[in-house]
Amino acid sequence: MTKAEIVAKIAEKTGVEKGAAQAVVESFMDIVKTSIKADEPVYLRGFGSFIKKTRKAKKGRNIKAGESIIIPEHSIPAFKPAKTFLGELK
Amino acid sequence: MTKAEIVAKIAEKTGVEKGAAQAVVESFMDIVKTSIKADEPVYLRGFGSFIKKTRKAKKGRNIKAGESIIIPEHSIPAFKPAKTFLGELK
DNA sequence: AACATAAAAGACACAAAATGTCTACCCACA
DNA sequence: TGTGGGTAGACATTTTGTGTCTTTTATGTT
After folding, report:
1. How many angstroms separate the CA of A85 from the C1' of C6?
2. Long-range contacts: A42-46, Cβ < 8 Å, 24+?
3. pLDDT band at A89 (very low <50, low <70, confident <90, very high)
4. A27, B19 in Cβ contact below 8 A?
5. B25 SS3 class
6. Distance (Å, whole) CA A39 – CA A53
7. B13-26 pLDDT tens trace
């Protein structure tokens, strides 16, 4: 399912005009990104939370060259699904 | 940041009425959940993808009782952040 | 506007699964 | 038309997830 498809479904379900729905969805993505970058979690009850997490340095490898490589410590956006979501999925 | 807060920001940025924005966001969450449950990935270019993944069975432990427990194989909703998102975060 | 309800985070130990690295090609979304 | 993202492949180490209870906080309802 792509962005265009989900926007179409949202418009259909909510009655909101397609253009407006797309603007809302894109704004949503943008705000979540901005918020995570600012290290502020986004909490969506019944769905899940977006949180900035830190990954410790780790050994990876350059597949092409076959050599060991050190992946430095870095931050990632993590999604923690809500318990209700997990329950519906089991 | 909570749902109410993000809805307010979206309304402010897009000009879409707050009530409509909230309906869109909630519909968005609902559709993503439904799609994942149907094992259909949701691709959001520039943001990330939601995919249903399978976790293999694993040993955990009941902290309270201190006993080993087997966590059976199960499905989870995974979020894979877009490369651009990761780049902005590093 | 305030209250009641329900949902989520945190914390504990530990074993095994999952991750993430690079490169390049190809397809499909925007 | 341009570019973002999936895919594959090897391997060491980090991360994960379990149950339960408490406390905090959002949600929506009277």
Report:
1. 15
2. A42/B1, A42/B6, A43/B1, A43/B2, A43/B3, A44/A82, A44/B3, A44/B29, A45/A82, A45/B2, A45/B3, A46/A82, A46/A84, A46/A85, A46/B29
3. confident
4. no
5. helix
6. 9
7. 999 999 999 999 99
Q: Which tens digits make up the pLDDT trace of A21-51?
A: 999 999 999 999 999 999 999 999 999 999 9
Choose which CATH entry (1.20.1630.10, 3.40.50.620, 1.20.1740.10, 4.10.520.10) describes domain A3-89: 4.10.520.10
User: Which residue is associated with the tokens 């918020």?
Assistant: A35
CB–CB of A89 and B78 under 8 A?
A: no
The SS3 assignment for B17 reads coil
Chain A nearest-CA distance from B67, in A, is 23
ipTM: 0.92
